[in-house]
Amino acid sequence: MVLVLISACGSVQSVNGGQRDCDKALHGENAGLKDREDFLAWVKTSLYQAELALHNGDPAPRRALWSRREPVSVLGAWRNASGQAEVDALFVYLGKSS
Questions:
Q1: What's the number of domains the chain is made of?
Q2: 87, 66 Cβ separation under 8 angstroms
């Protein structure tokens, strides 16, 4: 699964939490390469560990990757959720279903 977040071009939020000027992110030297490296590092560490934990019945690390600020939603192939309460319930259910 790949999650892509797109925001207005006032700033670009990378997966490691850093922000850069949109012009630099789009046109700067090696900008795309750095974003790709950051994304792959995140997928191979945080996301992988969270998915493994969810598979083993612990939904907490996967839930921690989702925002705690409204609005928040999960658009899933199996089940959708909207709002903090539904998202929490979804991850609890997923943990129990493994």
A1: 1
A2: yes
Residue 11 maps to a domain: no
Give the domain range for residue 65: 51-98
17 part of a folded domain = no
> Residue 39 falls within a domain, yes or no?
no
Whether 38 and 14 have beta carbons less than 8 Å apart is answered as yes
Which tens digit of pLDDT belongs to each residue from 51-70?
Answer: 999 999 999 999 999 999 99
For the chain, what is the mean pLDDT?
76
> Rounded to two decimals, what is the model's pTM?
0.60
Residues paired with residue 13 on neighbouring β-strands, in sequence order: 19
- For 50, the token pair is 């969270």
SS3 track for 50-80: HHHHHHCCCCHHHHHCCCCCCCCEECCCCCC
